[in-house]
Amino acid sequence: MNDTDRCNVPCYKGNLVRRLKDEMPSEELLRDIARMFGVLADVTRLRILGALSSGEELCVCDVANVVGLSLSATSHQLRKLREAGAVTYRNDGRMAYYRLQDGFLAGLMLQARVQAERTGRRPDGSMQAQSS
Q1: What is the domain partition of the chain in residue ranges?
Q2: What pLDDT is attached to residue 64?
Q3: How do strand 87-92 and strand 58-59 relate by DSSP bridges?
Q4: Counting beta carbons within 10 angstroms of the beta carbon of residue 96, is it exposed (0 to 12), middle (13 to 18) or buried (19 or more)?
Q5: What CATH fold (topology level) applies to the domain 31-119?
Q6: What parts of the chain have a pLDDT lower than 70?
Q7: Which of 11, 57, 73, 100 stands the most exposed, by the fewest C-beta atoms within 10 Å?
Q8: Listed residue (96, 70, 95) closest to 82, CA to CA
Q9: Which pLDDT score is estimated for 132?
Q10: pLDDT score, position 12
């Protein structure tokens, strides 16, 4: 840690610090949020969420076709997303249909994409040269 990352006083804005501590979510809620971000921290699942971000309900075979996975791999990832509460599921005879739980994830996906494009990050995490 360099000197700019340190604070030389124990508490500078006491009232603000107390308020922020009072507003901090519970440990249980933070664990739930961390689990959701963990589920989202997978490129394959992000592709699936991207496919479902249209708002349309898709059957497993259509999702598999869009993201380029086998039916088995797609079903496995959709199950993880369903268990995390990210997608809803319905059976209609021999067909299984999925859609995003709500518009929140579609908005989050869009904002994350805009942010990633704005910061110029490559898929490997390195920075792209910014054009002038």
Answers
A1: 31-119
A2: 98
A3: unpaired
A4: middle
A5: Arc Repressor Mutant, subunit A (1.10.10)
A6: 1-4, 7, 121-132
A7: 11
A8: 96
A9: 44
A10: 75
